[in-house]
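A reminder before we start the practical. When you read a complex entry, don't treat the lines as separate problems. The point of joint prediction is that each chain is placed relative to the others, so the output describes one connected object in space. Small molecules and nucleic acid strands, if listed, are placed in the same frame. In the example below there are two entries. Take a minute to note the order of the lines before looking further.
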Amino acid sequence: KNEVEQSPQNLTAQEGEFITINCSYSVGISALHWLQQHPGGGIVSLFMLSSGKKKHGRLIATINIQEKHSSLHITASHPRDSAVYICAVSGYGGSQGNLIFGKGTKLSVKP
Amino acid sequence: EAGVAQSPRYKIIEKRQSVAFWCNPISGHATLYWYQQILGQGPKLLIQFQNNGVVDDSQLPKDRFSAERLKGVDSTLKIQPAKLEDSAVYLCASSPRGALSGNTIYFGEGSWLTVV
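Here is the predicted structure of the whole assembly.
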């Protein structure tokens, strides 16, 4: 079993829909990261969370430390949101860069 | 603010050849990471530098991979000799100190390697 699990693996939505991507983890963490990767492009960091909720534009990220679960929400989705969304956690101990990555959720938003 | 710069963006080589990738992190970032991302998988940390010292290289295949950050700024990742299974995107990232709370990691656009 992977230490970081994301669901769904693939998601197709119509423009304007509200989207939720889930991430569950099984290790103790110091922070959780939501990342966005476009085809052919590098990775962009969207959020880093250690508790609570963060909002940036149409993106909202929440984390529940007790339940070891985080969600990424996209409101009023748009085709330009189409990308792979990756959840990664930085655990306690070891190197700080040794992020444990989920396998990603491929989002496709249709016009 | 300039982001993490990587070159080359794309490289195709034959197996057993060598290749080198270069990374220039964000100015002032002490921590630099190299990740390997195989198609369909999440990135895997190869090596982490703090300034010019190695913090973690436990997942670096040292028989063929090497990396250096001599002056604590830019870094080079080398593969020699390359194998087919090295085909991947090599991502460089940097952060002010480390991936702890309050230290976002910034990724470059990646160097795509195809070994044929």
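Discuss with your neighbour: The mean pLDDT of chain B is 90. What might explain this?
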